[in-house]
Amino acid sequence: MVNVLVVDEHTAVAESTVHDLRRQGYDAQSVGTGTAALKLHLAADLVLLGLELPDIDGLEVCRTIRSVSDTPIISVTGRDTELDRVLALQAGSDDCVPRSCGSREVMARIQAVMRRARPRSAGARTLTVDGLRIDGGSREVRLHGGTVDVTAKEFDLLYLLASCPATVVSRREIMTQIWESDRVASSRTLDTHVSSLRAKLGGDWIVTVRGVGYRIGRGRPDPGASGDLAGSPTGPPPRARSVDRPPEPIPTGPPPPYSSPAGILPDPAAPVTGSLPATSAPDGTPPHLPQLLRQLPEVAPGTETSLTNRTVAM
After folding, report:
1. Mean per-residue pLDDT for 128-144?
2. Which secondary structure element, helix H or strand E, spans residue 46, and what is its range?
3. C-beta separation of 47 from 5 below 8 A
4. Is 215 helix (H, G, I), strand (E, B) or coil?
5. Other CB atoms closer than 10 Å to residue 89's CB: what's the count?
6. What CA–CA distance (Å, rounded) separates 259 from 270?
7. Quick one: how many helices (H) and strands (E) in the chain?
8. Angle formed by the axes of helices 82-91 and 58-68, nearest 10°
């Protein structure tokens, strides 16, 4: 779809022209100043430029656009004189029409200019790189089956890179073939077109070779493709997320009653009642020691003495 930029200080006239262009199948937008036109012209396939502008002289706008790009320009002049037409053509316009010209003639002139700007080559062929399809005949770009709207220069740039998929195309060669110039201004224009194509295509379809130029890349696989590999993760499995557990409640109130293992040791918190006899055996052995010894597990022979001594020491 051809993108037309309408530049006219009269808002009503510009909106009417945009409406007519859209009815004829064009993608059109309008601006009312020369400053806005200089910011947006790189995204347009054709500029319909009114020469009477409130901020910058229309002829100067025309010269500036022509100095950085080959975008077709049709100038619209308020005076239908030979001098006005000559000045417009000398400033870089491809055609010049008076403001009194009817809409049908304007459409016919747009078609004629675009035919000269986009000559159909008999040898134009369709290039396919993975999911990217570039039709040289219809000048249409499709990515994974979907249409990608590109400007004339963006198409020429993409077609040039895709036509030599295994070759790095130098910046000078690109500027010479696409812009027919190797000036610094054309170099900045190339950077702008590359950035715009990357934004429209996504992935890595245009690869920069530092210090040399650009080559066509391989982009990314179709996100809607089916199969085991489509959509499968290529990196390590994701780490499990830790779940924050609530802190354990702090017990309140009195501590639970003490219970010793197998009832061997008395409760240390229990009150002491009564008193133990000093001795109940002639050798001075405490009366409860034999009972404790019977509850201990069997020990190897020869260790009874040391075990008894440790028990007594307790």
Report:
1. 89
2. strand 46-50
3. yes
4. strand
5. 15
6. 11
7. 10, 12
8. 30
Q: Write 52-58 long-range contacts (CB < 8 A, 24+).
A: 52/9, 52/77, 52/78, 53/7, 53/9, 54/9, 58/7, 58/34
Spatial distance between the Cα atoms of 4 and 17, rounded to a whole number of angstroms: 10
Q: 208 pairs with which residues across the strands?
A: 214
Cα gap 47→88, rounded to integer Å: 13
Amino acid found at 75 = S
User: Which amino acid makes up residue 161?
Assistant: L
Is residue 262 over pLDDT 60? Answer: no
**CA atoms of 71 and 206, how far apart (whole Å):** 22
Predicted confidence (pLDDT) at residue 109 exceeds the cutoff of 60: yes
DSSP string over 103-171:
HHHHHHHHHHHHHHHSPPPTT--EEEETTEEEETTTTEEEETTEEE---HHHHHHHHHHHHSTTSPEEH
Closest Cα partner for 9 from 58, 46, 45?
A: 58
Contact 88, 51 (CB under 8 A): yes
pLDDT digits (tens, 9 = 90+) for 145-195: 899 999 888 898 999 899 888 788 888 888 877 876 656 555 778 888 899
Distance CA 124, CA 158 (A): 14
More confident residue, 82 or 251: 82
Mean per-residue pLDDT over the chain, rounded: 77
